[in-house]
Amino acid sequence: MTTTTEAPFTRGATNSSASTAKRFTIADLADIPQPWDDTRYEIIDGELFVSSQPSAQHQYSCNEVAGCLRNWNAVSGLGWVLPAPGVIFADDDNAAPDVVWLSRDRLRSVIGREGHLHGPPELIVEVLSPGAVNERRDRDAKLKLYGRRGVDEYWIVNWQLRQMDVYRRAPAGGNRLEHVTTLDEDAALESPLLPGFAVTVGDLFLPQDL
């Protein structure tokens, strides 16, 4: 995901106390002037996250992940790959993941008439951006969000360290995603969700010798 900054909009007083901090909803976004660039607004458990334009390294990894999934999907015909879709789980829980994959049946069940998703994709991919705020959003807030909302698998791609973390729903189910593995750039990425899919992790990153 892209770099998170401080929210430019608040309605009423907000302080650091969890019991009195403002909880944002989708209705609040209507009061925010629409940006001229591709700034993203996401609300996770009532907290507003504002993300700025991504870096070239970030976008390269997003494109490579989506491209590898599309190539596999073109052969398997099992579903759909969507870049940066809106996923509205609830009024105070909505996100814009970098890449998602959904089976055909899942897409039919969760897509709304306006084109947003209103339920969990099977797979969500976020490309991590530098900074502690971004780490907290992707590794904590979004991990919990995707877990409690029914996502089956979550990849966090770290182009700085040239590795990725894989989280999957526990075999017993529940409302959390468990860390399965950290893959270095020489490792092969595979998934039980995607039969026959395989890619070397290092191929997802911008070459270092540019």
Description:
With 210 residues, the chain is of the alpha+beta class. The protein has one domain: tt1808, chain A, CATH 3.90.1570.10. Helices cover 23% and strands 28% of the residues. The protein is built from four helices and 13 strands. The strands form four sheets. Strands 4-7-8-9-10-11 form a six-stranded mixed beta sheet, with helices on both faces. Strands 1-3-2 form a three-stranded antiparallel beta sheet, covered by helices on one side. Strands 5-6 form a two-stranded antiparallel ribbon. The protein is globular and about 45 Å long. Mean pLDDT is 88; it is low at 5-19.
Strand segment count:
13
CATH topology: tt1808, chain A
CATH class: Alpha Beta
Please tell me how large the radius of gyration is.
Answer: 17 Å
The total domain count is 1
Summing up helix and strand content along with how strands pair, one would put the structural category as alpha+beta
Low-confidence stretches: 5-19
Shape: globular
The side-by-side strand order for the widest beta sheet comes to: 4-7-8-9-10-11
Averaged pLDDT: 88
Summarize the structure in short:
The chain has a single domain, classed as tt1808, chain A. Helices cover 23% and strands 28% of the residues. It has helices spanning 26-29, 56-76, 104-110, 132-148; strands at residues 4-5, 40-44, 47-51, 79-83, 87-90, 93-95, 99-103, 123-127, 153-158, 163-169, 177-184, 188-189, 199-200.
